[in-house]
Amino acid sequence: MTFLRRLVGDAPPRVLWSLLVLLALLLVAPAVLGKYWLSVLILVLYFAYVGQAWNILMGFAGQLSLGHALYAGLGGYIAAGLYFHYGIGPWAGLFAAIAVAGVAGAIVGYLGFRFSLAGVYFALLTIAFSEFTRVAFDHWAWAGGSAGLFLKVEPGTDLLNLRGGPLLFYYVILALAAGAFILCRVLLQSRLGRYWLAIREDAEAAQAVGVPVLRCKMMAIVISAGLTALAGVWNAFYYNNLFPETAFAMGRSIEITLAPIIGGLGTLFGPIVGAVVLTGLGEAFTDVGDMLRIPGSKQIFYGLALLIIVMYRPAGVWPWLADKLGLKDRQP
Amino acid sequence: MSGARLQLETIGKSFRGLRAVHDVSFAVPAGAIHALIGPNGAGKTTIFNMIAGVFAPDAGCVRLDGAVISGLRPDRICDAGVGRTFQLVKPFKELSVLENVTVGALHRRRHLPDARDAAAAILSQLGLYDRRHQLAQSLTLPDRKRLEVARALATEPKLLLLDEVMAGLRPTEVDVMVGFLRELNRRTGLTILLIEHVMRAVMALAAEVVVVSYGEKIAEGTPQEVTRNQAVLDVYLGQEEL
After folding, report:
1. Whole-angstrom distance, CA of residue B76 vs CA of residue B86
2. Which of A10, A221, B85, B128 has the CA that lies 20 to 30 A from B59?
3. Number of domains observed in the structure of chain B
4. Mutate which of A10, A207, A209, A217 to disrupt the B interface (most B C-beta within 10 Å)?
5. Going edge to edge, which strands form the sheet with B208-213?
6. How many CB pairs under 8 A join A and B?
7. Distance between CA A189 and CA A268 in Å, rounded?
8. For residues B33 and A256, what is the distance between their CA atoms, to the nearest angstrom?
9. Do A210 and B155 touch (CB under 8 A)?
10. Whole-prediction pTM
Protein backbone atom coordinates (compact mmCIF):
# COMPACT_ATOMS: atom_id res chain seq x y z
CA MET A 1 0.00 0.00 0.00
CA THR A 2 2.84 2.41 0.75
CA PHE A 3 4.17 1.67 -2.69
CA LEU A 4 0.78 2.53 -4.14
CA ARG A 5 0.69 5.72 -2.07
CA ARG A 6 4.09 6.72 -3.36
CA LEU A 7 2.95 5.94 -6.85
CA VAL A 8 0.31 8.64 -6.90
CA GLY A 9 2.46 10.98 -4.84
CA ASP A 10 0.88 14.35 -4.22
CA ALA A 11 -2.36 13.50 -5.98
CA PRO A 12 -5.45 13.19 -3.75
CA PRO A 13 -6.27 9.67 -2.45
CA ARG A 14 -9.31 9.45 -4.69
CA VAL A 15 -6.98 9.33 -7.68
CA LEU A 16 -5.45 6.15 -6.32
CA TRP A 17 -8.89 4.67 -5.65
CA SER A 18 -10.15 5.66 -9.09
CA LEU A 19 -7.13 3.99 -10.65
CA LEU A 20 -7.67 0.80 -8.68
CA VAL A 21 -11.35 0.76 -9.61
CA LEU A 22 -10.46 1.34 -13.25
CA LEU A 23 -7.95 -1.50 -13.15
CA ALA A 24 -10.52 -3.82 -11.54
CA LEU A 25 -13.08 -2.90 -14.18
CA LEU A 26 -10.58 -3.58 -16.95
CA LEU A 27 -9.75 -6.94 -15.39
CA VAL A 28 -13.38 -8.11 -15.43
CA ALA A 29 -14.36 -6.27 -18.62
CA PRO A 30 -13.92 -9.25 -20.98
CA ALA A 31 -16.59 -11.15 -19.02
CA VAL A 32 -19.25 -8.64 -20.04
CA LEU A 33 -17.91 -7.24 -23.29
CA GLY A 34 -18.59 -8.79 -26.65
CA LYS A 35 -15.94 -9.61 -29.20
CA TYR A 36 -16.20 -6.24 -30.90
CA TRP A 37 -15.80 -4.12 -27.78
CA LEU A 38 -12.96 -6.29 -26.59
CA SER A 39 -11.08 -5.58 -29.82
CA VAL A 40 -11.75 -1.85 -29.36
CA LEU A 41 -10.42 -2.00 -25.80
CA ILE A 42 -7.34 -3.87 -27.02
CA LEU A 43 -6.71 -1.05 -29.47
CA VAL A 44 -7.10 1.57 -26.70
CA LEU A 45 -4.63 -0.24 -24.46
CA TYR A 46 -2.16 -0.73 -27.29
CA PHE A 47 -2.11 2.99 -28.10
CA ALA A 48 -1.97 3.89 -24.42
CA TYR A 49 1.05 1.64 -23.95
CA VAL A 50 3.00 2.62 -27.03
CA GLY A 51 2.12 6.28 -26.46
CA GLN A 52 3.51 6.04 -22.94
CA ALA A 53 6.75 4.66 -24.39
CA TRP A 54 7.05 7.45 -26.98
CA ASN A 55 6.13 10.06 -24.39
CA ILE A 56 9.29 9.26 -22.41
CA LEU A 57 11.42 10.58 -25.24
CA MET A 58 9.22 13.45 -26.41
CA GLY A 59 7.08 14.40 -23.43
CA PHE A 60 9.75 14.01 -20.77
CA ALA A 61 13.08 14.55 -22.51
CA GLY A 62 11.73 16.81 -25.27
CA GLN A 63 13.20 14.93 -28.25
CA LEU A 64 10.83 14.52 -31.19
CA SER A 65 10.93 11.07 -32.78
CA LEU A 66 8.84 10.47 -35.87
CA GLY A 67 10.38 7.09 -36.47
CA HIS A 68 9.26 4.97 -33.55
CA ALA A 69 7.92 2.36 -35.97
CA LEU A 70 11.60 1.41 -36.26
CA TYR A 71 11.69 0.05 -32.70
CA ALA A 72 8.25 -1.56 -32.85
CA GLY A 73 9.13 -3.14 -36.21
CA LEU A 74 12.52 -4.41 -35.07
CA GLY A 75 11.03 -5.83 -31.88
CA GLY A 76 8.26 -7.58 -33.76
CA TYR A 77 10.53 -8.99 -36.43
CA ILE A 78 13.18 -10.21 -34.00
CA ALA A 79 10.72 -12.03 -31.73
CA ALA A 80 8.64 -13.37 -34.60
CA GLY A 81 11.72 -14.44 -36.55
CA LEU A 82 13.20 -16.28 -33.58
CA TYR A 83 9.92 -18.12 -33.08
CA PHE A 84 9.38 -18.81 -36.76
CA HIS A 85 12.87 -20.10 -37.50
CA TYR A 86 14.06 -21.61 -34.23
CA GLY A 87 10.91 -22.11 -32.17
CA ILE A 88 12.17 -19.70 -29.52
CA GLY A 89 9.11 -18.39 -27.70
CA PRO A 90 8.39 -14.67 -27.39
CA TRP A 91 9.01 -14.60 -23.63
CA ALA A 92 12.65 -15.31 -24.39
CA GLY A 93 12.57 -13.52 -27.73
CA LEU A 94 11.44 -10.28 -26.16
CA PHE A 95 14.83 -9.85 -24.51
CA ALA A 96 16.51 -10.05 -27.90
CA ALA A 97 13.84 -7.68 -29.26
CA ILE A 98 14.47 -5.13 -26.51
CA ALA A 99 18.23 -5.44 -26.93
CA VAL A 100 18.15 -4.91 -30.69
CA ALA A 101 15.72 -1.98 -30.46
CA GLY A 102 17.75 -0.52 -27.61
CA VAL A 103 20.91 -0.65 -29.71
CA ALA A 104 19.06 0.91 -32.66
CA GLY A 105 17.81 3.65 -30.33
CA ALA A 106 21.32 4.19 -29.02
CA ILE A 107 22.68 4.58 -32.57
CA VAL A 108 19.98 7.05 -33.61
CA GLY A 109 20.34 8.87 -30.30
CA TYR A 110 24.10 9.10 -30.39
CA LEU A 111 24.14 10.43 -33.95
CA GLY A 112 21.44 12.96 -33.12
CA PHE A 113 22.44 14.06 -29.64
CA ARG A 114 26.22 13.91 -29.92
CA PHE A 115 26.09 16.14 -32.96
CA SER A 116 23.38 18.34 -31.49
CA LEU A 117 20.67 17.70 -34.05
CA ALA A 118 17.64 19.33 -32.48
CA GLY A 119 13.95 19.59 -33.22
CA VAL A 120 12.91 18.77 -36.76
CA TYR A 121 16.44 17.76 -37.75
CA PHE A 122 16.45 15.05 -35.13
CA ALA A 123 12.96 14.05 -36.26
CA LEU A 124 14.23 13.73 -39.85
CA LEU A 125 17.04 11.48 -38.64
CA THR A 126 14.54 9.19 -36.90
CA ILE A 127 12.44 9.03 -40.08
CA ALA A 128 15.50 8.24 -42.17
CA PHE A 129 16.52 5.32 -39.97
CA SER A 130 13.02 3.91 -39.96
CA GLU A 131 12.78 4.24 -43.75
CA PHE A 132 16.04 2.60 -44.65
CA THR A 133 15.40 -0.19 -42.19
CA ARG A 134 12.15 -0.77 -44.09
CA VAL A 135 14.08 -1.01 -47.34
CA ALA A 136 16.62 -3.37 -45.76
CA PHE A 137 13.86 -5.66 -44.47
CA ASP A 138 12.31 -5.70 -47.93
CA HIS A 139 15.43 -7.54 -49.06
CA TRP A 140 16.22 -9.63 -46.01
CA ALA A 141 15.32 -13.25 -46.68
CA TRP A 142 15.47 -14.31 -43.01
CA ALA A 143 12.68 -11.85 -42.25
CA GLY A 144 10.68 -12.97 -45.29
CA GLY A 145 11.51 -9.95 -47.43
CA SER A 146 8.72 -7.86 -48.86
CA ALA A 147 6.48 -10.96 -48.99
CA GLY A 148 6.27 -10.81 -45.20
CA LEU A 149 6.61 -13.13 -42.26
CA PHE A 150 3.66 -15.23 -41.11
CA LEU A 151 3.18 -16.97 -37.81
CA LYS A 152 1.14 -20.16 -37.80
CA VAL A 153 -2.26 -19.71 -36.22
CA GLU A 154 -3.00 -22.63 -33.93
CA PRO A 155 -6.18 -23.46 -32.10
CA GLY A 156 -6.19 -23.27 -28.33
CA THR A 157 -4.21 -21.18 -25.94
CA ASP A 158 -0.49 -21.63 -25.45
CA LEU A 159 0.66 -19.03 -22.96
CA LEU A 160 4.31 -20.02 -23.24
CA ASN A 161 4.40 -19.22 -26.94
CA LEU A 162 1.84 -16.44 -26.75
CA ARG A 163 -0.55 -18.28 -29.03
CA GLY A 164 -4.23 -17.76 -28.43
CA GLY A 165 -7.27 -15.59 -28.93
CA PRO A 166 -8.02 -11.93 -28.25
CA LEU A 167 -8.58 -12.58 -24.54
CA LEU A 168 -4.95 -13.60 -24.03
CA PHE A 169 -3.71 -10.55 -25.91
CA TYR A 170 -6.09 -8.32 -24.01
CA TYR A 171 -4.59 -9.30 -20.67
CA VAL A 172 -1.04 -9.06 -21.97
CA ILE A 173 -1.53 -5.54 -23.32
CA LEU A 174 -3.39 -4.56 -20.14
CA ALA A 175 -0.41 -5.71 -18.08
CA LEU A 176 1.96 -3.82 -20.39
CA ALA A 177 -0.10 -0.62 -20.22
CA ALA A 178 -0.36 -0.78 -16.43
CA GLY A 179 3.34 -1.59 -16.14
CA ALA A 180 4.34 1.28 -18.42
CA PHE A 181 2.19 3.68 -16.40
CA ILE A 182 3.88 2.63 -13.16
CA LEU A 183 7.33 2.72 -14.73
CA CYS A 184 6.79 6.22 -16.10
CA ARG A 185 5.51 7.41 -12.75
CA VAL A 186 8.58 6.01 -11.00
CA LEU A 187 10.88 7.50 -13.63
CA LEU A 188 9.28 10.92 -13.30
CA GLN A 189 9.81 10.87 -9.55
CA SER A 190 13.46 9.94 -9.97
CA ARG A 191 16.48 12.12 -10.51
CA LEU A 192 16.71 10.95 -14.11
CA GLY A 193 13.09 11.97 -14.72
CA ARG A 194 13.62 15.44 -13.27
CA TYR A 195 16.76 15.80 -15.39
CA TRP A 196 14.74 14.90 -18.48
CA LEU A 197 12.22 17.64 -17.76
CA ALA A 198 15.05 20.12 -17.23
CA ILE A 199 16.63 19.14 -20.55
CA ARG A 200 13.25 19.46 -22.27
CA GLU A 201 12.89 22.99 -20.90
CA ASP A 202 16.45 24.24 -21.48
CA ALA A 203 19.38 21.93 -22.12
CA GLU A 204 22.04 24.61 -21.61
CA ALA A 205 20.65 25.67 -18.23
CA ALA A 206 20.30 22.00 -17.27
CA GLN A 207 23.93 21.31 -18.07
CA ALA A 208 24.99 24.33 -16.03
CA VAL A 209 23.39 22.80 -12.93
CA GLY A 210 25.25 19.56 -13.48
CA VAL A 211 22.91 17.54 -15.68
CA PRO A 212 24.90 15.18 -17.94
CA VAL A 213 22.74 16.05 -20.93
CA LEU A 214 24.01 13.52 -23.48
CA ARG A 215 23.83 10.59 -21.05
CA CYS A 216 20.30 11.49 -19.94
CA LYS A 217 19.06 11.81 -23.53
CA MET A 218 20.63 8.46 -24.37
CA MET A 219 18.85 6.86 -21.42
CA ALA A 220 15.57 8.34 -22.64
CA ILE A 221 15.84 7.01 -26.18
CA VAL A 222 17.07 3.56 -25.14
CA ILE A 223 14.28 3.10 -22.56
CA SER A 224 11.70 4.44 -24.99
CA ALA A 225 12.94 2.19 -27.81
CA GLY A 226 13.03 -0.88 -25.55
CA LEU A 227 9.44 -0.35 -24.39
CA THR A 228 8.29 0.29 -27.95
CA ALA A 229 9.93 -2.98 -29.02
CA LEU A 230 7.67 -4.82 -26.57
CA ALA A 231 4.65 -3.30 -28.27
CA GLY A 232 6.07 -4.61 -31.54
CA VAL A 233 6.44 -8.13 -30.14
CA TRP A 234 2.86 -8.05 -28.89
CA ASN A 235 1.68 -6.70 -32.23
CA ALA A 236 3.47 -9.41 -34.24
CA PHE A 237 1.98 -12.25 -32.20
CA TYR A 238 -1.48 -10.68 -32.10
CA TYR A 239 -1.76 -10.14 -35.84
CA ASN A 240 0.43 -13.11 -36.85
CA ASN A 241 1.91 -11.32 -39.82
CA LEU A 242 4.60 -8.76 -40.50
CA PHE A 243 5.35 -6.76 -43.62
CA PRO A 244 8.12 -4.18 -43.94
CA GLU A 245 5.64 -1.89 -45.72
CA THR A 246 3.44 -1.68 -42.63
CA ALA A 247 5.78 -2.50 -39.74
CA PHE A 248 8.17 0.35 -40.59
CA ALA A 249 5.61 2.61 -42.22
CA MET A 250 5.64 6.34 -41.62
CA GLY A 251 1.96 6.06 -40.74
CA ARG A 252 2.80 3.59 -37.99
CA SER A 253 5.25 6.08 -36.50
CA ILE A 254 2.71 8.90 -36.64
CA GLU A 255 0.05 6.70 -35.08
CA ILE A 256 2.32 6.15 -32.08
CA THR A 257 2.64 9.89 -31.47
CA LEU A 258 -1.07 10.72 -31.61
CA ALA A 259 -2.36 9.51 -28.23
CA PRO A 260 0.15 11.46 -26.14
CA ILE A 261 -0.23 14.57 -28.31
CA ILE A 262 -4.03 14.51 -28.08
CA GLY A 263 -4.02 13.49 -24.44
CA GLY A 264 -1.25 15.77 -23.21
CA LEU A 265 2.49 15.61 -23.83
CA GLY A 266 4.66 14.89 -20.85
CA THR A 267 1.76 13.83 -18.63
CA LEU A 268 1.20 10.34 -17.25
CA PHE A 269 -2.51 10.22 -18.05
CA GLY A 270 -2.18 11.91 -21.43
CA PRO A 271 -1.38 8.79 -23.47
CA ILE A 272 -4.25 6.90 -21.80
CA VAL A 273 -6.84 9.66 -22.25
CA GLY A 274 -5.56 10.26 -25.78
CA ALA A 275 -5.88 6.58 -26.66
CA VAL A 276 -9.49 6.53 -25.43
CA VAL A 277 -10.37 9.67 -27.38
CA LEU A 278 -8.62 8.55 -30.57
CA THR A 279 -9.99 5.04 -30.64
CA GLY A 280 -13.44 6.24 -29.64
CA LEU A 281 -13.48 8.80 -32.43
CA GLY A 282 -12.09 6.27 -34.88
CA GLU A 283 -14.85 3.77 -34.11
CA ALA A 284 -17.58 6.42 -34.11
CA PHE A 285 -16.55 7.74 -37.49
CA THR A 286 -16.30 4.24 -38.90
CA ASP A 287 -20.03 3.96 -38.16
CA VAL A 288 -20.71 7.39 -39.64
CA GLY A 289 -18.63 6.46 -42.68
CA ASP A 290 -20.60 3.23 -43.12
CA MET A 291 -23.86 5.16 -42.89
CA LEU A 292 -22.84 7.83 -45.39
CA ARG A 293 -21.34 5.30 -47.80
CA ILE A 294 -18.87 7.92 -48.97
CA PRO A 295 -15.37 6.48 -49.29
CA GLY A 296 -12.86 8.27 -47.10
CA SER A 297 -15.49 10.08 -45.07
CA LYS A 298 -14.22 8.36 -41.92
CA GLN A 299 -10.73 9.75 -42.42
CA ILE A 300 -12.05 13.24 -43.12
CA PHE A 301 -14.14 13.34 -39.95
CA TYR A 302 -11.36 11.77 -37.94
CA GLY A 303 -8.85 14.34 -39.19
CA LEU A 304 -11.25 17.20 -38.51
CA ALA A 305 -11.89 15.99 -34.98
CA LEU A 306 -8.16 15.83 -34.25
CA LEU A 307 -7.72 19.28 -35.74
CA ILE A 308 -10.40 20.71 -33.50
CA ILE A 309 -8.96 19.10 -30.38
CA VAL A 310 -5.45 20.33 -31.15
CA MET A 311 -6.76 23.82 -31.90
CA TYR A 312 -8.81 24.17 -28.73
CA ARG A 313 -6.74 22.07 -26.34
CA PRO A 314 -3.17 22.55 -27.57
CA ALA A 315 -1.82 21.23 -24.25
CA GLY A 316 -3.94 18.11 -24.68
CA VAL A 317 -7.20 16.82 -23.28
CA TRP A 318 -5.84 15.55 -19.95
CA PRO A 319 -4.63 18.87 -18.41
CA TRP A 320 -8.05 20.34 -19.17
CA LEU A 321 -9.86 17.28 -17.88
CA ALA A 322 -7.73 17.19 -14.72
CA ASP A 323 -8.66 20.79 -14.10
CA LYS A 324 -12.39 20.03 -14.57
CA LEU A 325 -12.11 17.09 -12.18
CA GLY A 326 -10.50 19.37 -9.61
CA LEU A 327 -7.20 17.54 -9.78
CA LYS A 328 -4.89 20.49 -9.58
CA ASP A 329 -2.00 18.13 -9.60
CA ARG A 330 1.29 19.97 -9.33
CA GLN A 331 3.15 17.02 -10.73
CA PRO A 332 3.08 16.34 -14.43
CA MET B 1 30.14 24.71 1.86
CA SER B 2 33.22 26.87 1.58
CA GLY B 3 34.84 28.88 -1.13
CA ALA B 4 37.36 27.91 -3.75
CA ARG B 5 40.13 29.97 -5.28
CA LEU B 6 39.70 30.89 -8.93
CA GLN B 7 42.63 31.62 -11.21
CA LEU B 8 42.54 32.69 -14.82
CA GLU B 9 45.91 32.30 -16.50
CA THR B 10 46.40 34.24 -19.73
CA ILE B 11 43.16 33.00 -21.22
CA GLY B 12 42.14 33.94 -24.73
CA LYS B 13 39.30 33.20 -27.11
CA SER B 14 38.61 34.09 -30.73
CA PHE B 15 35.45 33.59 -32.73
CA ARG B 16 36.15 33.22 -36.44
CA GLY B 17 39.22 35.37 -36.17
CA LEU B 18 37.51 37.98 -34.02
CA ARG B 19 39.48 38.31 -30.81
CA ALA B 20 36.85 38.29 -28.04
CA VAL B 21 39.20 37.83 -25.10
CA HIS B 22 42.97 38.18 -25.12
CA ASP B 23 45.56 37.38 -22.49
CA VAL B 24 43.37 37.93 -19.45
CA SER B 25 44.71 36.86 -16.07
CA PHE B 26 43.33 37.46 -12.62
CA ALA B 27 42.58 35.56 -9.46
CA VAL B 28 39.79 35.53 -6.93
CA PRO B 29 40.95 34.25 -3.53
CA ALA B 30 38.79 31.70 -1.72
CA GLY B 31 35.92 33.39 0.06
CA ALA B 32 36.30 36.75 -1.71
CA ILE B 33 33.77 38.72 -3.74
CA HIS B 34 35.18 40.26 -6.90
CA ALA B 35 33.50 42.03 -9.78
CA LEU B 36 34.15 41.98 -13.50
CA ILE B 37 33.10 45.17 -15.23
CA GLY B 38 33.51 46.75 -18.64
CA PRO B 39 31.50 48.25 -21.47
CA ASN B 40 29.07 46.12 -23.47
CA GLY B 41 30.88 43.72 -25.75
CA ALA B 42 34.08 43.84 -23.72
CA GLY B 43 34.14 40.06 -23.34
CA LYS B 44 32.83 39.64 -19.80
CA THR B 45 30.28 36.97 -20.60
CA THR B 46 32.83 35.22 -22.83
CA ILE B 47 35.14 35.02 -19.82
CA PHE B 48 32.27 33.58 -17.74
CA ASN B 49 31.49 31.04 -20.43
CA MET B 50 35.10 29.89 -20.43
CA ILE B 51 35.06 29.46 -16.65
CA ALA B 52 31.74 27.61 -16.77
CA GLY B 53 32.81 25.36 -19.63
CA VAL B 54 30.41 26.50 -22.34
CA PHE B 55 33.54 26.62 -24.47
CA ALA B 56 37.22 26.04 -23.78
CA PRO B 57 39.72 28.90 -24.03
CA ASP B 58 41.98 28.89 -27.12
CA ALA B 59 44.89 29.86 -24.91
CA GLY B 60 45.67 29.71 -21.22
CA CYS B 61 43.73 27.89 -18.55
CA VAL B 62 41.28 28.25 -15.72
CA ARG B 63 42.04 26.73 -12.32
CA LEU B 64 39.77 26.07 -9.38
CA ASP B 65 41.71 25.49 -6.17
CA GLY B 66 44.74 24.83 -8.35
CA ALA B 67 43.15 22.15 -10.53
CA VAL B 68 42.67 22.91 -14.22
CA ILE B 69 38.95 22.98 -15.08
CA SER B 70 39.06 24.57 -18.51
CA GLY B 71 38.17 22.13 -21.26
CA LEU B 72 35.72 20.21 -19.08
CA ARG B 73 32.02 20.00 -19.95
CA PRO B 74 29.69 22.41 -18.11
CA ASP B 75 28.17 19.63 -15.99
CA ARG B 76 31.67 18.49 -14.96
CA ILE B 77 32.56 22.04 -14.01
CA CYS B 78 29.40 22.15 -11.95
CA ASP B 79 30.63 18.94 -10.27
CA ALA B 80 33.92 20.70 -9.57
CA GLY B 81 32.01 23.38 -7.69
CA VAL B 82 31.12 26.20 -10.05
CA GLY B 83 27.58 27.57 -10.12
CA ARG B 84 26.52 30.16 -12.67
CA THR B 85 23.58 32.29 -13.67
CA PHE B 86 22.75 33.38 -17.20
CA GLN B 87 22.59 37.01 -18.23
CA LEU B 88 19.59 36.18 -20.38
CA VAL B 89 17.74 34.16 -17.78
CA LYS B 90 17.04 30.53 -18.61
CA PRO B 91 14.32 29.26 -16.31
CA PHE B 92 12.77 25.83 -16.86
CA LYS B 93 9.59 27.60 -17.91
CA GLU B 94 7.00 24.86 -17.65
CA LEU B 95 8.24 23.67 -14.28
CA SER B 96 7.28 25.25 -10.99
CA VAL B 97 9.70 27.52 -9.16
CA LEU B 98 10.30 24.76 -6.62
CA GLU B 99 10.96 22.18 -9.34
CA ASN B 100 13.43 24.54 -11.02
CA VAL B 101 15.55 24.74 -7.91
CA THR B 102 15.01 21.05 -7.13
CA VAL B 103 16.83 20.15 -10.36
CA GLY B 104 19.83 22.06 -9.05
CA ALA B 105 19.55 20.45 -5.62
CA LEU B 106 19.45 16.97 -7.17
CA HIS B 107 23.02 17.55 -8.23
CA ARG B 108 24.31 16.62 -4.79
CA ARG B 109 21.28 14.61 -3.64
CA ARG B 110 19.94 11.40 -5.05
CA HIS B 111 16.40 11.49 -3.72
CA LEU B 112 13.65 13.82 -4.81
CA PRO B 113 12.15 14.57 -1.35
CA ASP B 114 15.59 15.58 0.04
CA ALA B 115 16.22 17.77 -2.98
CA ARG B 116 12.79 19.40 -2.61
CA ASP B 117 13.49 20.24 1.03
CA ALA B 118 16.85 21.74 0.18
CA ALA B 119 15.30 23.72 -2.68
CA ALA B 120 12.53 25.04 -0.41
CA ALA B 121 15.12 26.24 2.09
CA ILE B 122 17.01 28.17 -0.58
CA LEU B 123 13.78 29.66 -1.93
CA SER B 124 12.88 31.05 1.48
CA GLN B 125 16.29 32.70 1.74
CA LEU B 126 15.70 34.42 -1.59
CA GLY B 127 12.12 35.40 -0.81
CA LEU B 128 10.62 33.14 -3.45
CA TYR B 129 9.10 30.54 -1.12
CA ASP B 130 5.57 31.93 -1.45
CA ARG B 131 5.79 31.57 -5.23
CA ARG B 132 7.20 28.07 -5.18
CA HIS B 133 4.18 26.50 -6.86
CA GLN B 134 3.96 29.03 -9.67
CA LEU B 135 5.29 28.08 -13.08
CA ALA B 136 8.64 29.74 -13.67
CA GLN B 137 7.32 31.38 -16.83
CA SER B 138 4.82 33.38 -14.76
CA LEU B 139 7.54 35.14 -12.75
CA THR B 140 8.51 38.77 -13.27
CA LEU B 141 12.03 39.51 -14.48
CA PRO B 142 13.43 40.40 -11.02
CA ASP B 143 12.01 37.14 -9.67
CA ARG B 144 13.48 35.21 -12.57
CA LYS B 145 16.87 36.69 -11.71
CA ARG B 146 16.41 35.52 -8.14
CA LEU B 147 15.41 32.10 -9.43
CA GLU B 148 18.65 31.92 -11.43
CA VAL B 149 20.61 32.58 -8.25
CA ALA B 150 18.56 30.06 -6.25
CA ARG B 151 19.01 27.32 -8.85
CA ALA B 152 22.76 27.89 -9.05
CA LEU B 153 23.08 27.91 -5.26
CA ALA B 154 21.17 24.65 -5.02
CA THR B 155 24.10 22.86 -6.67
CA GLU B 156 26.17 23.89 -3.62
CA PRO B 157 28.96 25.61 -5.49
CA LYS B 158 32.29 26.77 -4.10
CA LEU B 159 32.39 29.55 -6.67
CA LEU B 160 29.33 31.44 -7.81
CA LEU B 161 29.36 33.30 -11.13
CA LEU B 162 26.64 35.95 -11.30
CA ASP B 163 26.01 37.47 -14.70
CA GLU B 164 24.14 40.76 -14.24
CA VAL B 165 21.68 39.54 -11.66
CA MET B 166 20.95 43.12 -10.55
CA ALA B 167 19.97 44.37 -14.01
CA GLY B 168 16.32 45.38 -14.08
CA LEU B 169 16.02 45.45 -10.30
CA ARG B 170 14.80 48.57 -8.48
CA PRO B 171 17.32 50.20 -6.13
CA THR B 172 15.59 48.74 -3.06
CA GLU B 173 15.62 45.30 -4.66
CA VAL B 174 19.31 45.74 -5.46
CA ASP B 175 19.93 46.45 -1.79
CA VAL B 176 18.05 43.30 -0.78
CA MET B 177 20.07 41.19 -3.22
CA VAL B 178 23.33 42.81 -2.09
CA GLY B 179 22.41 42.08 1.52
CA PHE B 180 21.60 38.48 0.68
CA LEU B 181 24.86 37.89 -1.20
CA ARG B 182 26.98 39.53 1.46
CA GLU B 183 25.32 37.47 4.19
CA LEU B 184 25.70 34.30 2.10
CA ASN B 185 29.36 35.02 1.56
CA ARG B 186 29.94 35.80 5.26
CA ARG B 187 28.09 32.69 6.42
CA THR B 188 29.44 30.12 3.97
CA GLY B 189 32.67 31.58 2.67
CA LEU B 190 31.44 31.09 -0.90
CA THR B 191 33.64 32.77 -3.51
CA ILE B 192 31.66 35.09 -5.77
CA LEU B 193 32.56 36.65 -9.10
CA LEU B 194 29.98 39.00 -10.52
CA ILE B 195 29.55 40.75 -13.82
CA GLU B 196 27.63 43.87 -13.03
CA HIS B 197 26.66 47.19 -14.54
CA VAL B 198 24.88 48.36 -11.42
CA MET B 199 27.77 50.20 -9.74
CA ARG B 200 25.79 50.55 -6.55
CA ALA B 201 26.04 46.78 -6.15
CA VAL B 202 29.67 46.58 -7.26
CA MET B 203 30.74 49.24 -4.76
CA ALA B 204 28.81 47.56 -1.96
CA LEU B 205 29.96 44.01 -2.60
CA ALA B 206 33.27 43.72 -4.39
CA ALA B 207 36.58 43.82 -2.58
CA GLU B 208 38.29 44.08 -5.94
CA VAL B 209 37.23 44.93 -9.46
CA VAL B 210 38.67 43.73 -12.75
CA VAL B 211 37.96 46.02 -15.70
CA VAL B 212 37.99 44.65 -19.24
CA SER B 213 37.66 46.49 -22.52
CA TYR B 214 37.91 45.07 -26.05
CA GLY B 215 38.75 41.69 -24.57
CA GLU B 216 41.70 42.84 -22.52
CA LYS B 217 42.17 43.59 -18.87
CA ILE B 218 42.82 47.30 -18.48
CA ALA B 219 42.67 47.73 -14.73
CA GLU B 220 42.37 45.86 -11.47
CA GLY B 221 42.02 47.08 -7.90
CA THR B 222 39.58 48.17 -5.23
CA PRO B 223 36.41 49.85 -6.45
CA GLN B 224 37.77 53.18 -5.28
CA GLU B 225 41.00 52.67 -7.21
CA VAL B 226 39.44 51.64 -10.50
CA THR B 227 36.91 54.45 -10.50
CA ARG B 228 39.81 56.90 -10.34
CA ASN B 229 41.88 55.03 -12.93
CA GLN B 230 42.36 57.13 -16.08
CA ALA B 231 42.21 54.20 -18.50
CA VAL B 232 38.89 53.14 -17.00
CA LEU B 233 37.50 56.65 -17.17
CA ASP B 234 38.52 56.88 -20.83
CA VAL B 235 36.74 53.65 -21.67
CA TYR B 236 33.57 54.68 -19.94
CA LEU B 237 33.65 58.35 -20.98
CA GLY B 238 30.45 59.30 -22.67
CA GLN B 239 28.93 55.89 -22.06
CA GLU B 240 28.05 55.64 -18.45
CA GLU B 241 28.79 57.49 -15.31
CA LEU B 242 30.72 55.54 -12.77
Report:
1. 17
2. B85
3. 1
4. A209
5. B82-84, B159-163, B191-195, B33-37, B208-213, B216-221
6. 79
7. 12
8. 53
9. yes
10. 0.93
